[in-house]
Amino acid sequence: MKTAIIIPARMASQRFPNKPMANIVGVPMIERVWRQGTKANIGDVFVACSEREVFDHITSVGGRAIMTDPDLPSGTDRIFAAYNSLQNKDEYESIINLQGDMPLIDPKNIKSVNLPLINGFEIGTISTNISENEEKNENITKVIIDWKKLNTLGNSVDFYKSSKRKLLNIYQHVGIYSFRPTALKKFITLPPSKNEIEKKLEQLRALDAGIKIGITYVENIAISVDTIEDLKIVEKIIKEKNDIN
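The chain above was modelled as a monomer; its predicted structure follows.
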């Protein structure tokens, strides 16, 4: 399956300004994510950015970067804009939206997000285990899964953040997506749904429009960097692994 991995990068984050270029043991975060995407070895990797600083850095290390409008409303819109600018876009069967704040993501987990598309879904994503405390944490997105084949392939029934006080068939959602090009275009052209706006979860737009989201399971998922404290945790992990470069 010919795949384009596209990593959205935006410097103007309110919670963490200049996050893509945050220094993690001598290497900018966006470069570390790009490296992991490359290690997945499933297709071409691009960084969709809105600032010249990010563009120049990625190209300086041998990567491919695409400038996009800084005023795009979401990372998914940025992914679509970057994809649309590719001269050979019609060659790709899958577009993976790899979040730019996951510098330690396992390349195997990036590969796994294509599994739902291989099995007929238009959109794919991944999940991992969730603890009772995590289920109560409203900062963590949960997903209810109807498994077709346990822990291998399932259908996403619902996504939510507020606790339902139960764990049966509930998993932690990992915000990496694969799209068939036609599904990505349809998703972008749909208006935000009422459910999406109320729960502040973009993926509900697809479910509300009747687009099924296939899902698979991964054993472990690396921390996402949302705060300076998260950054310090990632730095500690890298130093302990002696994987500085």
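The first helix runs from residue 29 to 40.
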